[in-house]
């Protein structure tokens, strides 16, 4: 058992003693672990001790409480309510960290935590980042942490958050950086799109900072609105170089084939895991995606799952900004779409070139980028729809042959008339009037034929215009649907004339009007929904990081559960409906009381996105599946980790990437599916793999046992080639 697991176990025993009516002594529990790990154990026990004493109304002697803390260099804060630890987390509860006074927690992610702190010697406010797992961090986590600090430390630019100090204290690695007293760009965009001029100005500032980083051979690789902070003067500051790569002397921490970054903002080469092709052009793409989000209020690509988003990034063209908002200037749309080109040579050659074109736009000068021509648009459309394109080409060819034949026949007819008129010069005078009449008749016929052809061309042109307008309305209706504006989507769909309603129209019409009640409230894509066992409540988890509870009969919102710091990927009720479990991109699973909305437990341990959670049939256990290639089983009431399941086979070991888990009806077995098509059956009691279904070339997204437990159903989909 690792020291971290020992600390969790001892804390569980300590809390159980309080809950059973005892008054346990902290010192008696400190001796249960080896001396080097006692400071970390003390930091975890003290908030529990203070909390339970406070519930009993005990008056706590701050001097007595501070004695064990001073023995292990852990500082407590005293106020009128007795001594308390500064941080809310039970595992990071120190107020002083070396020469830094920790003031408040700013943010927490999968690898690190950031505090607002005061550097005592210099009496300045800083942001202090440290590895979340502290002294138990692995060598790769420490190396990646130092790579981030070192990459940013060499960058001295007003648009980049500065690094002050890199160090280690008590086995905990940290670095301090400038404190930005303001929201992230994502926080500003939660209120909606920006005006075009403001978006262009901010994007130019960000691009200037990125261009400077490129001049120092540093590529960010994770540019997104959440990694841009806005200071008190409204100026952007680029931060979080956790995935940064040096062009020369790369550490090799990112393996070939590994997809790292944020799917909605990463270029196709990064989505395909082609790390050797990721260079400055990747950051140019991400800058274009940020500009797109500032103009439209949404990223260029977003879907219900990571895999679907990656597929859109690789295969699809983004909806043009002016399709979503016609008020966006054409020049700014052109700049944005040039950044978002699929191939690197078609993007701006450098971030400096992007800065120059944005300056041209802001100064009212002509930009260098040019809109995609109609020919190029047509060619891209043909590549996406080869069958339809081939059919249209055949129709055009047939039409050209028909027109050519008509002209030839008409020319031959005119030639015959002329020859006939010259056949007999001697009788010309006699038949002059008749010939003139015949010629006038032929001319009238020719004019009539020209008029008919002109009318036919006009009709065809009008039909083509109507078809183009119908297609544009169809695209706009789908865009409104993706923005949760169902009423607008249905109205636009009904404007499409009946003769232009193809199978896509009827499928969309069915989708847009398929629900009895449409629920609004989330600010981003909804990734998961679940009914309560009695069917009166509905839970929904969203990319906006919240869970909402709804009245399934009236559609009214009952509560909003906040606790996850990233998108919620999965929600499910316990069999009796007393609990709700959730999974998130923030690498945690959580247990909630749906009646009160109170967070009961946070289950930590996964090192990548948690995609799926499932209750055992008796509700006593929760299973969670993650992209870190593991399945963890937790005790429902305490949130403690009972066991971790991982495949014995080394085949696709690094890319198992669990996407779904489910218990059998008797609770004795557990089924799991992965992104690469592996389906595994596990013995819950022993944790052993008892069966593996291989050979599928599609990713497994969800699984379900039949009521008798004999059969297993899976949902699968074709994956892009990486």
Describe this entry's structure for a reader.
The structure is a single chain. With 722 residues, this protein is α+β, with helices and mostly antiparallel strands. The protein contains 18 helices and 30 strands. The strands form nine sheets. Strands 3-4-5-6-8-7 form a six-stranded antiparallel beta sheet, with helices on one face. A four-stranded antiparallel beta sheet has the order 13-14-15-16, with no helix packed on it. A four-stranded antiparallel beta sheet has the order 17-18-19-20, with no helix packed on it. Strand 26 and strand 27 form a beta hairpin. The longest helix has 51 residues, at 432-482. The chain starts with a helix and ends with a strand. Residues 62-67, 69-94 and 249-258 have low confidence and may be disordered.
What's the short version?
This protein is an alpha+beta fold and 722 residues long. Helix content is 37%, strand content 23%. A hairpin with a 4-residue loop joins strand 19 (588-593) and strand 20.
Number of strands: 30
Number of helices: 18
- Which quaternary structure do these chains form? single chain
Beta-strand residue fraction: 15-25%
> Which structural category do the helix and sheet elements fall into?
alpha+beta
User: What order do the strands of the largest sheet run in, or round the barrel if closed?
Assistant: 3-4-5-6-8-7
Integer average pLDDT: 82
Shape: elongated
- The percentage helix is 25-40%
């Amino acid at each position: 058992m690792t020291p971290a697991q020992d600390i969790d176990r001892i804390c569980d025993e300590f809390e159980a003693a309080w809950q059973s009516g005892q008054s346990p002594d902290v010192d008696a529990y400190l001796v249960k672990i080896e001396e080097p790990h006692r400071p970390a154990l003390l930091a975890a026990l003290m908030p529990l001790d203070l909390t339970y004493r406070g519930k009993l109304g005990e008056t706590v002697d701050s001097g007595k409480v501070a004695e064990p803390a001073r023995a292990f260099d852990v500082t407590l804060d005293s106020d009128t309510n007795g001594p308390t630890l500064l941080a809310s987390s039970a595992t990071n509860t120190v107020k002083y960290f070396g020469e830094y006074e920790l003031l408040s927690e700013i943010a927490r992610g999968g690898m690190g935590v950031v505090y607002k702190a005061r550097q005592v010697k210099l009496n300045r406010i800083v942001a202090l980042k440290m590895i979340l797992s502290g002294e138990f961090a692995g060598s790769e986590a420490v190396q990646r942490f130092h790579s981030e600090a070192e990459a940013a430390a060499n960058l001295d630019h007003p648009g980049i958050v500065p690094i002050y100090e890199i160090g280690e204290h008590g086995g905990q690695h940290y670095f301090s950086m400038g404190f930005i007293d303001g929201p992230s760009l994502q926080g500003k965009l939660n209120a909606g799109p920006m005006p075009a001029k403001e978006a262009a100005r901010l994007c130019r500032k960000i691009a200037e900072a990125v261009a400077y980083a490129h001049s120092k051979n540093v590529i960010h690789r994770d540019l997104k609105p959440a990694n841009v902070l806005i200071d008190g003067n409204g100026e952007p500051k680029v931060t979080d170089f956790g995935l940064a790569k040096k062009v020369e002397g790369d550490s090799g921490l990112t393996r070939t084939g590994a997809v790292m970054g944020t799917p909605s903002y990463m270029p196709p080469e990064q989505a395909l895991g082609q790390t050797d092709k990721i260079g400055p052009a990747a950051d140019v793409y991400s800058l274009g995606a940020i500009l797109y989000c500032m103009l439209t209020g949404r990223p260029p690509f977003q879907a219900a799952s990571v895999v679907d988003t990656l597929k859109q990034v690789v295969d699809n063209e983004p909806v043009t900004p002016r399709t979503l908002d016609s008020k966006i200037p054409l020049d700014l749309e052109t700049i944005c779409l040039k950044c978002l080109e699929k191939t690197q040579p078609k993007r701006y050659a450098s971030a400096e070139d992007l800065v120059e074109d944005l300056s041209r736009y802001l100064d009212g000068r002509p930009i260098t980028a040019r809109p995609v021509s109609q020919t190029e648009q047509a060619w891209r459309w043909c590549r996406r729809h080869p069958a339809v394109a081939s059919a249209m080409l055949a129709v055009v060819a047939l039409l050209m042959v028909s027109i050519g034949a008509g002209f030839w026949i008409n020319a031959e007819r005119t030639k015959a008339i002329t020859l006939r008129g010259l056949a007999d010069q001697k009788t010309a005078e006699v038949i002059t009037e008749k010939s003139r009449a015949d010629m006038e008749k032929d001319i009238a016929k020719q004019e009539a034929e020209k008029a008919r052809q002109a009318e036919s061309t006009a009709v065809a042109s009008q039909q083509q215009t109507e078809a183009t307008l119908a297609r544009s309305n169809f695209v706009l209706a789908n865009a409104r649907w993706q923005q949760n504006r169902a009423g607008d989507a249905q109205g636009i769909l009904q404007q499409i004339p009946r003769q232009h309603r193809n199978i896509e129209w009827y499928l969309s019409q069915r989708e847009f009007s398929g629900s009895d009640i449409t629920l609004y409230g989330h600010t981003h894509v909804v990734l998961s929904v679940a009914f309560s066992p009695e069917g009166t409540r509905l839970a929904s988890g969203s990319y906006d990081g919240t869970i909402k509870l709804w009245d399934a009969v009236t559609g009214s919102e009952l509560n909003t559960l906040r606790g996850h710091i990233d998108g919620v990927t999965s929600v499910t009720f316990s069999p009796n409906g007393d609990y709700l479990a959730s999974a998130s991109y923030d690498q945690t699973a959580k247990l909630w009381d749906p009646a009160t909305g109170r967070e009961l437990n946070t289950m930590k341990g996964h090192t990548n996105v948690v995609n799926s959670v499932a209750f055992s049939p008796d509700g006593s256990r929760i299973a969670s599946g993650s992209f870190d290639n593991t399945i963890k089983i937790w005790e429902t009431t305490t949130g403690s980790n009972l066991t971790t399941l991982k495949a014995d086979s080394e085949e696709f070991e690094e890319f198992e990437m669990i996407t779904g888990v489910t218990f059998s009806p008797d609770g004795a077995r557990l089924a799991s599916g992965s992104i690469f098509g592996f389906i595994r059956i596990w013995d819950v009691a022993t944790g052993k793999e008892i069966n593996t279904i291989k050979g599928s070339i599609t990713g497994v997204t969800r699984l379900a046992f039949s009521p008798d437990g004999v059969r297993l159903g899976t949902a699968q989909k074709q994956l892009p080639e990486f």
